Amino acid sequence: MTGLTVESTARAMADGVRRREISARELLDLHLARIAERNPQLNAIVSLDEERARAAADAADERTASGADLGPLHGLPFAFKDTHDVAGWRTTYGSPLFADHVPDADELVVERIRAAGVVPIGKTNVPEFAAGSHTFNPVFGATLNPVDPTRSAGGSSGGAACALRAGMVPLADGSDMGGSLRNPASFCGVVGLRPSLGRVPSWPTDNLWETTATSGPLARDVGDVALLLSVIAGPDPRVPTALAEPGRSFAPPVAGDLRGLRVALSVDLAGLLEVDAEVSGVVAAAGESLAAGGARVEQAQPDLTEADDTFRTLRAWSFQAGLGPLLAAHPTGIKRSLADNIRAGEHLTGADVARAYAQRTALAERMRRFFETYDVLVLPTAQVPPFPVEQEYPTRINGRPMTTYLDWMRSCYVITVTGCPAISVPAGQTRGGLPVGIQIVAPFGADRRLLEVAAAFEAAAGLV
């Protein structure tokens, strides 16, 4: 066995298996040992099935020995987000109403990851129905932050981000409506990418045309994010909104250059965001790192005034459409904050939804024009550092009240409704050592360019 550890890159692990320097079974055993060490406290991996995982690893080794073509993720242990359907595997969506649910078929993102050769080991924990950027539910409990277990790991892909940072898995899938890939990446000190709309198609779906949510990759560095994106991206004939570029166009290696990059940096989007003072300091320091690397950094931001109403309207509409019948059948079976959001959707009119889509169209056009002047926008990923795990959400920032459980997530969800790709990259930490990420946003469709910029920042900031 080589010097590979659970902290090695997924790229190095996959290469080691391909070269027969380490077997899939040995790689699995390394990760199962780390899971045994850290998961009892952190609660990131759920529905773990070691026996099934070992059988899959043995099958992977047999395929390696046969000389067959190997997928880009061949032999890598993998735990799927517990909101993604995995055939034959318990999938609860974090809800007691689905505590014993076992899907019959893989959804598309799972199908693609399995086809790339992973060794499934279990699922990663989520909030109830992935609602809210703090991972806790009545089925499995809360996921704790791997840097400071008294703090939240974020959400909704909190189990995924925690498992990555703790070395329990080399890669993780997630999904993002209001920040569910980006927020936990910031809280746990890993990298999370929300791709452009249509970059990672979803199937099956109740609504092909509602595109606030998307699947995407999480990893410990930008190169590994690119590796997973290359597997899950690409068109599918069942999804007419899917972008045409094949997934392989995003494959590593990824390298970028900050020289001459036109950066718009905004700590608070001209007062639209209330941002914790320590987070603001990290974002400002990131601007200095970008400038030191040769970027032209200016204080600037697009006008996203309508983004708040747009997101909240479309979110409530989507939740009511998807979960309204379930809430009607089980009025006390869904957590209150989510139930309130579902009920808010009941009162929306056609005019409300039409207004939201008109605003979204205007936001997309405004961003297109903004990116004629700038290459990227840099802002906070999360408005606060990881908060105490006992809280459902931060109720105050800088002493100012957050009236709903969405207010403190605004830095992510106002970007959601622009349709642009956004990546959270570790950028620093608080005085107490808690991770803080910056969010880098690129023009619609410029996912490869965004990865290159993120990789260049990663290198300039000394993160790799």
Structure description:
There is one protein chain. With 464 residues, the chain is an alpha+beta fold. It has a domain at 10-250: Amidase signature (AS) domain (Amidase signature (AS) enzymes). The protein contains 13 helices and 15 strands. The chain has helices at 10-18, 24-42, 50-66, 108-115, 158-165, 182-188, 222-232, 277-292, 307-329, 336-346, 350-370, 410-416, 447-460, and strands spanning 45-46, 77-81, 119-124, 136-137, 141-142, 172-176, 191-194, 214-219, 262-265, 296-299, 376-380, 396-397, 400-401, 422-429, 435-441. The chain has an 8-stranded mixed β-sheet with strand order 6-8-7-14-15-11-9-10. Strands 1-3-2 form a 3-stranded mixed β-sheet. α9 crosses α11 (350-370). The longest helix is centred in the C-terminal third of the chain and has 23 residues, at 307-329. It starts with 9 loop residues before the first helix and ends with a helix.
Tell me how many strands there are.
15
Order of helices and strands: HHEHEHEEEHEHEEHEHEHHHEEEHEEH
CATH structural architecture of the domain at 10-250: Alpha-Beta Complex
What's the arrangement of strands in the largest beta sheet?
A: 6-8-7-14-15-11-9-10
Can you summarize the main beta sheet? 8 strands, mixed
Mean pLDDT: 97
Question: Spans with pLDDT under 50 lasting ≥5 residues?
Answer: none
How would you name the CATH homologous superfamily of the domain at 10-250?
Amidase signature (AS) domain
Principal-axis shape equals globular
Structural class: alpha+beta
Please tell me how large the radius of gyration is: 21 Å
The portion of residues assigned to helices is 25-40%
* CATH class group of the domain at 10-250: Alpha Beta
Number of helices: 13
Gap from first CA to last CA: 24 Å
- How large a portion of the residues is in β-strands, by DSSP E? 5-15%
Kindly identify the CATH topology of the domain at 10-250.
Answer: Amidase signature (AS) enzymes
